[in-house]
Design brief:
221 residues, alpha/beta, Rossmann fold, Alpha-Beta Plaits, 6 helices, binds ribose-5-phosphate, NagB/RpiA_transferase-like, isomerase, ribose-5-phosphate isomerase activity, Ribose-5-phosphate isomerase A, Ribose5P_isomerase_type_A
């Protein structure tokens, strides 16, 4: 059984007719987008959506989920998105797919932010997964040096032979901390560095975590 799909299917049950839905990015959000499209067809749900990435927007378009421009958004009722790590306090690392900035904007403007993960993403302490940080390409070497001074090993993300470019035209630096004991504090320090656009720590943002297990069951917290 696909644990990511199990979590996604469970979370999509929270969506009700007429809602504006934030679409996440990644291999778990993929299943949620598929399930949303299925529910629209099966139950005739009328929904509109905003997307956290060009990839998810393309998928939504293929599946017939109407994407509306942000200028037309009054409220985002619910956003369903994946994560790379989730700790016991429901703090997250996100950005493995490079979509963290748009994901954070959408999540922080949503009434409900539902995180869907398979059980392998649950950790005691964040940080084994390198923390993705979006930076502007201008003077990137200087910004990266500042990140290094926070105690991590920064690695510029590559896509094949060239630098990975986000949907916003920026770079991602994957910062290897190994252990992030105080994610809130670290997040605040990272944000003070000029050149940093956003980081992948999502602290006290998730309203619900849906965990999918290999046997197809889910745990909601
Ligand atoms: O930028 C990507 C996102 O933050 C993803 O939601 C995150 O990386 C989890 O992705 P996946 O569901 O593919 O493991």
């Amino acid at each position: 059984m696909n644990a990511k799909k199990a979590a996604a299917d469970k979370a999509v049950e929270l969506i009700q007719d007429g809602m504006t839905v934030g679409l996440g990015t990644g291999s778990t959000a993929y299943w949620a987008i598929h399930r949303i499209a299925e529910r629209m067809k099966e139950e005739g749900l009328q929904l509109q959506a905003v997307s956290s990435s060009k990839n998810s927007e393309q998928l939504a378009n293929q599946l017939g989920i109407p994407i509306i421009p942000f200028s037309a958004v009054e409220t985002i009722d619910i956003t369903i998105d994946g994560a790379d790590e989730v700790d016991g306090e429901s703090s997250l690392i996100k950005g493995g797919g490079g979509a963290l900035l748009r994901e954070k904007i959408i999540a922080s403007n949503s009434k409900e932010f539902v995180v869907i993960v398979d059980e392998s993403k649950l950790v005691e302490t964040l940080g084994k997964f390198p923390l993705p940080i979006e930076i502007v390409p201008f003077a990137a070497e200087l910004t990266i040096r500042r990140l290094e001074q926070l105690g991590c090993r920064p690695v510029v993300r590559m896509a094949d032979e060239s630098t990975f470019i986000t949907d916003n035209g920026n770079w991602i630096v994957d910062c290897h901390f190994d252990e992030i004991k105080r994610p809130g504090e670290l997040g605040e320090r990272i944000k003070t560095i000029p050149g940093v656009v956003e980081h992948g720590l999502f602290v006290q943002m998730a309203s619900t975590i849906v965990v999918g297990h290999l046997d197809g069951t889910t745990t909601v917290r």
